[in-house]
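Work Package 3 (structural annotation) set out to generate three-dimensional models for the target panel prioritized at the project kickoff. During this period the team completed the workflow that converts sequence records into discrete structure tokens, so that structures can be stored uniformly alongside our sequence database. As a representative example, we reproduce one entry of 415 residues exactly as it appears in the project archive.
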Amino acid sequence: MHLPITNRGVNCSRNTLSVEPKLASTKLRGVLTLAALSTLLLVGIAPAHAVTETVLYSFGSYSGDGKNPGSNLIERGGNFYGTTFSGGANTYGTVFKLTPTGKETVLYSFCSQPNCTDGENPSSGVIADKDGNLYGTTIYGGAWGTLFKVTPTGEENVLFSFGTYSGDGAWPVGGVIMDKEGNFYGTTSLGGANDSGTVYKITPTGEESILYSFYSYPGDGSSPQAGVIMDNKGNLYGTTSGSGANNNGTVFKLTASGEETILYSFGSHPADGGTPVTGLVMDKEGNLYGTTSSGGAHNFGTAFKLTPTGQEKVIHSFGSGSADGRGGANQLIIDEETGILYGTSPLGSGKCYGTVFKMTLAGKETLLHHFYPDTGDGYDPQGALLMDSKGNLYGTAAGGGHNAYGGGTVFKITP
């Protein structure tokens, strides 16, 4: 059932305050389209106008339903697919399907095999192949987490169980990506040669290769909490939440042959961000954009830009006033036509429990929605947003919703 919620203003405490994001001055491109933005900006958060949020689905609506979605959605054939961290027939999470009209189907409930050799608790979303099969990771189950496949009819298969041999990775918190040959790439937060996490490759037949083990030298990163992205040359890019030259995490590049380069170590200058726990997006010029969960001018995290040569700029410091989101932001997306960044912040202030925002590449932020769980809205938005061809945004909130349990929501933002 669709339940629209009126945006009650741009400030969690209902007072109008402006904020001043960090300055940025560069001509940049979006992922697919030019976005010429070369003017220095010093602006306040602009108020949102005519923005409507609709709760498409509230989890925990029936016995055996999933609860606490903590990841992004994908769209295939007009339907949405994702995971919940808990709930389901066995309380260990689900893979679900949701129609545009809000009808939900649990495709699979985890930990259904004898002795729980199955996976447990997916913390990231799924990807799909051309046949509609879904792939993702669980952080528990198996030995130390799993890579799984779920068919369109709900049949599940564990493709790989992590931590089954010495030096293997463990605890795959981030999701996976797939190349043209059907190989999977991702990270583990633990394990590897130095027990500081890994980047791995798994073939379609389930054969794993450790491409890199973190903390291999002084100043290296450790404990990646998000997955990786791949450029057209096969290089992988990602973040680590720990270590680096300043013990505040890193952005790294990894070649197809496993050669790693630390592109940036956070905490390198005053008001820099720290502890990145989300992934990256890349524009056509090879610039990377992401978020940190701490640091910045107000110590509530940052949004940053990183050039291919490793030059970093903080484009926004979160918590820039009582209206702004806090706790950094989840993974960003870039609008394919305009180059505008979109994201969610998991925290707010006052009676606000998270935000949805858009941001220019120069750091001008506009708040589109504040979450108020006392209205039946969700709270604590998680994962990256999904944008359709009309500019509508879709995402998940880990808690709240229109039922007594408060098992989280799938929401739609109509700009």
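The domain at 3-414 is CATH 2.120.10.30 (Neuraminidase).
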